[in-house]
Amino acid sequence: MNHLGKTEVFLNRFALRPLNPEELRPWRLEVVLDPPPGREEVYPLLAQVARRAGGVTVRMGDGLASWSPPEVLVLEGTLARMGQTYAYRLYPKGRRPLDPKDPGERSALSSLARRLLQERLQRLEGVWVEGLAVYRREHARGPGWRVLGGAVLDLWVSDSGAFLLEVDPAYRILCEMSLEAWLAQGHPLPKRVRNAYDRRTWELLRLGEEDPKELPLPGGLSLLDYHASKGRLQGREGGRVAWVADPKDPRKPIPHLAGLLVPVLTLEDLHEEEEGLVLSLPWEERRRRTREIASWIGRHLGLGTPEAVRAPAYRLETPRLMGRKAVSKPADALRVGLYRAQETVLALLRLDGAQGWPEFLRRALLQAFGASGASLRLHTLHAHPSQGLAFREALRKAKEKGVQAVLVLTPPMAWEDRNRLKALLLREGLPSQILNVPLREEERHRWENALLGLLTKAGLQVVALSGAYPAELAVGFDAGGRESFRFGGAACAVGGDGGHLLWTLPEAQAGERIPQEVVWDLLEETLWAFRRKARRLPSRVLLLRDGRVPQDEFALALEALAREGIAYDLVSVRKSGGGRVYPVQGRLADGLYVPLEDKTFLLLTVHRDFRGTPRPLKLVHEAGDTPLEALAHQIFHLTRLYPASGFAFPRLPAPLHLADRLVKEVGRLGIRHLKEVDREKLFFV
In the predicted model, is pLDDT for residue 682 greater than 80? Predict the structure, then answer.
């Protein structure tokens, strides 16, 4: 057992009434599509058909399930996807009993429950509804805006066949004027806008100088005439041209009218308007509102009287971190010595007009290496990025002298210039740590974090874990990037103690799913890294996937591990979906493990005692045989391994946090700069 003791928590979920016999026997509908779609298109099209059919209808397998009688559904029609038009026809096949104890059938019932919740929320009067969120009370008001209080909801079905409702109080800031009117008051451009005539939202790129009466659209109509033909200008002024983009495809500008758009406001947008507007809730108040909203939902939606759900929780052992000696946080390693250090050469590039290493930075680095028993050489680069090829030559010579990473002291830079400089240094295999001036010795948190980042980018291991863990190799997989330029990448902790942190080369991809072959290629690289260091393969591997695991994404990798005789566990780690936890007695603490149903558990990795309520991670054990508590123990301890944060810890375990940082940085900088960078140099932290 890895826990210190048992306690109990309230979840922000509530048990409601059991499903009735008809709800346990939904209608089944066969779907015929013409022309027949390709394999990758089937499921998105079925989901679209379910929405077109109407009622409480969802995709189930290769057909549909519905709680609405077939006679009220739209049984035939057309829809479009990816430039292709499809005709669909639905054939009712009678009712099919579903067993909530079966995970697949319970998933279908839960999808129906969410659709039921959406439909019944839309029927409510006097409230603002967005998807699964409902806002019903005004919290604050200002010139042209108001804040509504409400909650984000979820509804699903338990294995006992009852509805479970999740409630998370939230606020929604609504603008009550068009973008044109908002800007006329002198406000800056908001980042997002929505249509005044429906709920679709856009990224706002810029205002245009074009005349909307003259700007042509495909089809021959002008921008103004197009919206007039749709009846959208009745009672509204069109205003100027505003260029927007779909958030899923932000590189494709679309012309719109500022008079037909409404700003989507954030608290930051209202900072000057209402400095006293505070929207965070102390946990006691959040819990009270959660109960109140659950009762209101149960009453108004006919779902029964809610009963708060309690769950057992366990406090996990505190991780023990090691530098040269035991430390409580990574910053301590700068004083007692790094876990693993070797002869290192660092360079300084000053773009602020000053010369040489600041004395307190030089002193801190020399102390860290002296305590680590390793030698350090410090250089200064006498060059400037504006010198073009001469700057590249200076970097090449620095690399030949053994420089492993570069600290850049600079006035604040635009992100584009910052990324260009990072990419330029990476071409020569030199990761950089950029630190803005002015820099004062008393700002210890700031410059110690920068030094830790610099040492990590140079390939040194700041800290490791002390203890026994099930997996000898932990690998985090993430898919992400910037705009529509996306990558699948991985980072790993080699050895049960995370004695080496490495990254593996990301590969370009179309979306959030990492191709099976890429997953295995990334994992194979980490296995090879382990073998180089340990001269054998690991006995067990912990695979951590950010978000839900797409179907069969890891099938090839798991087959390969089984062939090699390597045990494995695959865990889906979700930053959202874990809801909230509240103490029944006492206080919450870091490392709180809450086992749930279906190999699912919550893990509160970081809890700071401040205003608001912490959000645990939601983890699902997708494959493997390690007990959940042992998995929770290792994953919690891995959150303490992130070396570039000296004083605080991330929510995510280090391999996953590193993979997330990796794919985002590669999305910004591109992949072509990485061929000279050593895999132990975490250039992206």
Answer: yes
Res. 621: pLDDT tops 70 = yes
Domains of the chain (ranges; CATH) run 26-96 (3.30.70.2620), 191-264 (2.170.260.50), 341-458 (3.40.50.2300), 464-578+616-669 (3.30.420.10)
273 has pLDDT over 60: no
> Tokens at residue 487, please?
């990558």
What does the alpha-carbon distance between residue 224 and residue 538 come to, in Å, rounded to a whole number?
Answer: 65
512 labelled catalytic:
yes
Which of 546, 569, 665, 680 is catalytic? The answer is 546
Summarised one tens digit per residue, pLDDT across range 1-10 is 566 788 999 9
Which of 166, 448, 478, 680 is labelled catalytic?
Answer: 478
Exactly one of 512, 524, 622, 629 is catalytic; name it: 512
Neighbours of 213 (CB within 10 A): 10
Active-site annotation holds for 546: yes
Q: Coil, strand or helix: which one is 46?
A: helix
Alpha-carbon span 649 to 641, nearest angstrom: 8
Mean pLDDT of the chain: 90
The phi, psi pair for 66, rounded to 5°, reads -145, 140
Q: Which helix (H) or strand (E) holds 170?
A: strand 162-175
Q: Which residue is catalytic, options 180, 332, 428, 660?
A: 660
Confidence at 481, pLDDT banded by 50, 70, 90 = low
Strands 567-574 and 540-546, by their bridges, are parallel
